[in-house]
Amino acid sequence: MRITVSVIKADVGSVGGHTRPSERMLEVVRAQVREAVRFQLLLDGLVTHTGDDIAIIMSHTRGPGAHEIHRFAWDSFLAATEEARAAGLYGAGQDLLVDAPSGNVRGAGPAVAEIEFDRDPASRDRPAEPFLVFAGDKCGPGAYNYPLYALFCDPMHNGGLLLSPKLRRGFALTIIDMDHKAGDGDRVVQLDVPERVWDVACLLQNPDRFAIEAVYSRWKPDEQIVSVSATRLHNIAGTYTGKDDPVAIVRTQGIFPAPEEVVEPYTLGHFVTGDCRGSHVMPIMPVAINTTVAGPYCLPLVSCLAFSMDKDACFTREYVDMFGNVAWEATRLKVQRKADEWRRQGFVGPTMASHAELAYTGIVDALAALDREFVVRHEVQV
Ligand code: 13P
Ligand code: MG
Ligand code: MG
User: Fold this and answer.
1) Is residue 132 a contact partner of residue 306, using CB atoms and an 8 Å limit?
2) Which of 6, 19, 89, 142 could form a Cys-Cys staple with 13, CB 3.0–4.6 A?
3) CA of 360: how far to CAs of 36, 53, 234, 277, in Å?
4) pLDDT lower than 50: segments of the chain
5) pLDDT score recorded for residue 360
6) Residue 244's Cα: distance from chain center in Å?
């Protein structure tokens, strides 16, 4: 059976600031998912939150970009928005940037990651279908650049690249230019690694502009391993409306990397753009699913769930909360300390986001006003 896993995530309101959606909002979306399963639009579905974002994780047979699936997610977020409004919550409907999407909600505000594959228990390569779902809050799609680079390009992080003949064949990476304004299509480049690994590095050096959008196996070129929601809200809205809190799907095991290889780079607590007002550079903290943002600043967060899927595409019966494990407690403490130290530098230089990012915030007006006060001081010849 040809199955699509779709993960669609949006911030449509939160309790007491950008912390978490309310229980009632989550219940509204869960009820929608139950109905969608009952009416066989979905085969299975799960609703979670990471910080203030609600993620709907779904399996179905309608393919990536299917209008009815996207419409379903949009309508579910609208229902949660109503609930948020009624309760007077903050930022109701924040990520629903258009009145009504034409079909596909990619580019309309919500983050979308989707992968289609054959679910065939008799398959030689994929008798089982384990996969991971990542959800980030207070960061952008480029937040996955470093961990995905470490995973697919660097045997210092992923020994599997040396140990598995199937991984050794390498991968095809699709990298998207997120500064390209939507209209005439997406601007993308496909690079094969390990051959083009330094070219990949040159692009990923700028995670505000370039992001890995997809990764394909070169052992089985039809098999997509990774999908990342690589769009930027400020390019859609033209102004700062919240961060582009990204989701990603990573298929694992067999001809793909193992889950323990996929999560290894998150022990670093790498710096990403995001945090408070989406305008800082801060280390990202791996957290348990359904974690609230409540610390000082708005530390970027990432959650990770591990699923298996049966022959009927059911995957929610049991799952593993990867970053909820005790193994990550030392990392969390390290990241909080790293963040505390780094924030002591305040706004000066690299602790705030780059000027290209700040261009979507109110600092532009202050700089324009100051610009008019500048004078050129000429040297007086004596
Ligand atoms: P979100 O994008 O998660 O809503 O956060 C926005 C923000 O400005 C936090 O300070
Ligand atoms: Mg928010
Ligand atoms: Mg958010």
Assistant:
1) yes
2) 89
3) 38, 21, 7, 11
4) none
5) 79
6) 8
* 94 Cα nearest atom in ligand 1: 4
* Atom 4, ligand 1: residue with shortest CA distance: 242
Closest atom of ligand 1 relative to the 138 alpha carbon: 3
Residue 240: its pLDDT value, please? Answer: 62
Farthest CA pair distance, the chain: 90
Beta strands in the chain (DSSP E): 2-10, 44-50, 53-60, 111-118, 131-137, 171-177, 188-193, 210-217, 224-228, 247-251, 271-274, 280-283, 285-286, 301-307, 319-321
Q: Has 240 been annotated as catalytic?
A: yes
Rounded CA separation 47/27 (Å): 9
pLDDT tens-place string over residues 141-197: 999 999 999 999 999 999 999 999 999 999 999 999 998 876 778 999 999 999 999
- Token pair listed for 183: 């209209």
C-alpha of residue 224 to centroid of ligand 2, in Å: 31
**218 burial level (CB within 10 Å; 0-12, 13-18, 19+):** middle
Q: Residue 236's pLDDT is what?
A: 65
Could you identify the residue written with the tokens 């047979």? 61
